[in-house]
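Slide 14.
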Amino acid sequence: MECGYTLEWYDLIPIFSYISLKGKCRKCGTKLSVQYPLIEGLNGALYVLITAVYGLTLESVLYCFMTSALIALAVIDFRTFEIPVGFNIFILLLGITRVVYLLITGGEDGILLYIVGLFAVSIPLLIIWLITKGRGIGGGDIKLMGAAGLLLGWKLILLAFAIGCILASVIHVARMKMSKDENVSHVLAMGPYLAAGILVSALAGYTMINWYIGSLFSY
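Slide 15: predicted structure.
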């Protein structure tokens, strides 16, 4: 960012490049943000966790790619209050891949779960966006929940949205109380919380749903 140095492949090895460069630019020596190795480490750890949950399957591959996109868009939205449309298109393509795979392998019966997921949260959010003229929810958030809904299915995307809303209400209120920045009081970047909800739902959604349903019938 300081000197315009074009990164080489050996500058892009997660974590190890940062360590070998001692956290500085190879050309001008400018200190690099610790954000880079932290996010790279988080991304790798989540890859391991996803593989541990789903094994070496197509689902793992799709969720790993989704995770990288969610991490990136969460950081960008937190800083700029905008989700680049490219991330939503990428996640949408992952959802399309899942649907096509079901068609090829004869799993047509389960496709409706994912098609409904495309609209389950995004349509209600779109209605809110129209009623509030864009003040109630961001367009990027609508696209994110639609794309992720196609990938996760309607059950998990509803849970993801609920988790995201809970996290946003708790964490943002805490930030408002602790921060001296006036902007924090009225500007909410929903993307990071929705991304967290999507990830939690992808990893443990059905376990949480089954536990909740089981607890209801136990009374």
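Speaker note: The chain has a mean pLDDT of 91.
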